[in-house]
Amino acid sequence: MPPRHLATFQCDVTPPVGHPLCGGWILPVRGVDDPLAAKGIVILGESKPIVICGLDWTGLRNSAFRVWRQALAIAAHTTPEHVVLHSVHPHNAPFADLEAEKLIAAANSESSLDLKFYEDCVARSAKALKASLSKAVPFTHVGHGSAEVKQVASNRRILGADSRVKFTRTSATTRAEIRDEPTGLIDPLLRTLSFWNDAKPLACLSFYACHPMSYYGDGRVSADFCGLAREKVEADTGIFQIYLNGCGGNVTAGKFNDGSKQNRLNLRDRIFTAMFAASKDTRKIPVRSMDWQYQAVKLPPRKDANFGKEQSRTLLNDHKATTAQRNNSAFQIAWLERVSTPIEISCLNVNGAVWNLFLPGEAFIEYQLAAEKLRPHDAVLVAAYGDGGPGYIPTSKAFLEGGYEPTVALTAPESEEILLQAIKKLLQA
Fold it and tell me: Which of 15, 78, 188, 255 could make a disulfide contact with 82, Cβ separation 3.0–4.6 Å?
């Protein structure tokens, strides 16, 4: 086996003034509070290069995900199945679905994405990756660490006595009585995976499950508190940092955030503190083996009539409907038209002891906790928000409980078992 090498790359993906944010559901860009980035690593020395990239966008759906992944694969001289591309999921950021945008344009609804800007971001990120290969450096060890994040995550779904959702605790929750509800089901730990050349740290990936929004909808572009914490750590340490969101589909900062501007900085500092604590907790191991596996799955679509093509097209062409309603109908149609195209779920396994799992969509926290239980004596790090085509991926039980996420999820309840079986295979459980 030749020596393993690591390359790091990044490029700016900040949208210009006037560009849609969050799929056109909120105000477009009026200004920039902090820039957005695509940041990734390339692992060289295995049978095929492996690319892991985090993107400060709300999401990439369907072919918007696959086109970008393909461009990175070509630049890295690998196959698309060896590339993972995950959105950090701030909301004052772009949201990309190429098929949906074409449907939106044909229906004369308000744009969700500037296609030329998207193409430029894809090209520049691929160019940055390609240029990084000549600067790759050897790595000999990986490290893994964890630390509790205090007063950030809380479960969004608050159940009543009838076991149905009583309150939805949004990212910014203004009502004190909802903030005062118990934290609920979360994963309190931020986990890190770092790459080392003997004693020299080269890059660090952080994983934490929580919607990364403090406030949004004001037209001010921001990577929000998780992106800000990532950049603060990199500035302080000089070590290349990537942040990947875990299974935060039903987790927000709502218990600890009333939406005030100061809270963005408070939340940033709490994530920053956990990142530093996790780095101090790092356990380094020499790399003896690295294994990359993936499972292709097809997640079934909703069968409800209002999720079907006919009703979705009617709503898309209804000029009296809101932009959010019309554009959401386009996203539903785009999902139905690609549903036969599989989604790849991937896993990087180091020495049979460190397992890095990559999942699609806005998966619920239950999937992350299930993965961790499958290998209780190993380090298991989970990222969600890969291919965003399915949108939310609730548990089957959540559909009975009601609430926001199951009302907009594009996948059927049967998806839970399909996803769990793929996770078990990848973790060899």
Answer: 78
pTM: 0.97
Least confident of 52-56, 304-308, 413-417: 304-308
Phi, psi of 59 (to 5 degrees): 180, 160
SS (H, E, C) 19-87: CCCHHHCCCCCCEECCCCEEEEEEEECCCCCEEEEEECCCEEECHHHHHHHHHHHHHHCCCHHHEEEEE
- The β-bridge partners of 54 are 39, 86
- Euclidean distance between CA atoms 427 and 429, whole angstroms: 5
Whether 312 contacts 334, CB under 8 Å? no
Which parts of 46-199 are beta strand (E)?
A: 50-55, 59-61, 83-87, 95-97, 137-138, 141-148, 154-155, 157-159, 165-168, 189-197
Token pair 């406030």 is found at: 215
Residue 366 CA to residue 166 CA, distance in Å, equals 19
Q: Which two tokens stand for residue 227?
A: 């992106």
Residue 233 predicted with pLDDT over 90: yes
Count helices and strands (H / E) in the chain.
Answer: 12, 24
Residue with tokens 């100061």: 262
pLDDT at 126: 98
pLDDT, one tens digit per residue, over 385-421 is: 999 999 999 999 999 999 999 999 999 999 999 999 9
Integer Cα distance of 52 and 42 in angstroms = 7
Mean pLDDT across the stretch 358-377? 98
The CA distance from 252 to 153, in Å, is 6
Of the chain, the percentage scoring pLDDT greater than 70 comes to 100
Separation of alpha carbons 201 and 275, rounded Å: 14
Please state, in angstroms and as integers, the Cα–Cα distance from residue 1 to each residue in 6, 142, 192, 290, following that order. Answer: 15, 17, 26, 11
